[in-house]
Amino acid sequence: MFIVQVATECAPVAKVGGLADVVYGLSRELEIRGNAVEIILPKYANMRYDKIYDLRVSYQDLWVPWFGGAIHCTVYFGFVNGLKCFFIEPHSEEHFFDRAGYYGYLDDHLRFAFFSKAALEFLLKTGKRPDIIHCHDWQTGLLPVLLFEIYKYHGMDHPRVCYTIHNFKHQGIAGENVLWATGLGRPWHYFHRDRLQDGYNPSAINYMKAGIVYSNFVTTVSPQHAWEARYSDQGYGLGHVLYIHQNKFSGVLNGLDYDFWNPKTDAHIPYHYDRVERLGKSLDKQALRHRFWLAENHKPIIAYVGRLDWQKGIHLIRHGLFYSLWNNAQFVLLGSSPEAGTNDYFWHLKHYLNDSPDCHLEIGFNEELAHLIYAGADMLIVPSVFEPCGLTQMIGLRYGAVPIVRAVDGLLDTVFDWDYSEKPRCERNGFVFNQEDYQALESAMARAIRLWHEDKNRFDELVANGMACDYSWNKPGQYYLNIYEHIRNK
Question: pTM, whole model, 2 decimals?
Answer without folding.
Answer: 0.92
